[in-house]
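User: tokens in, sequence out, please.
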């Protein structure tokens, strides 16, 4: 195959590519020599991780309640709602005005 021969010639003449290939082969060799070894977890590790997860979930619930009861958030939400409603009203008026100006089809 000409492609294979071209690649072999290139690797023989290009020091950068040959070095990259050597590093890749070295990595594959190192990964192949790794062995499966199961480490024991320290006592209480699993319980500690589960406690951290539970505390994080509880923190989110408290934040949601705090945001839901914050008067500043209520004002911001009402302002945003008014903005959306106003934009929709202006768009509707503009659309209806543009429809009235269209000439009737014969």
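Assistant: Sequence out:
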């Amino acid at each position: 195959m000409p492609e294979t021969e071209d690649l072999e010639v290139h690797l023989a003449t290009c020091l950068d590519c040959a070095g990259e290939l050597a590093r890749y082969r070295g990595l594959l060799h190192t990964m192949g020599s790794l062995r499966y070894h199961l480490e024991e977890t320290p006592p209480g590790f699993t319980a500690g991780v589960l406690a951290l997860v539970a505390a994080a979930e509880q923190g989110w619930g408290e934040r949601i309640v705090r945001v839901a009861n914050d008067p500043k958030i209520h004002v911001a939400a009402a302002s945003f709602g008014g903005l959306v409603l106003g934009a929709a009203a202006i768009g509707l008026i503009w659309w209806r005005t543009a429809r009235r100006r269209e000439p009737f089809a014969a």
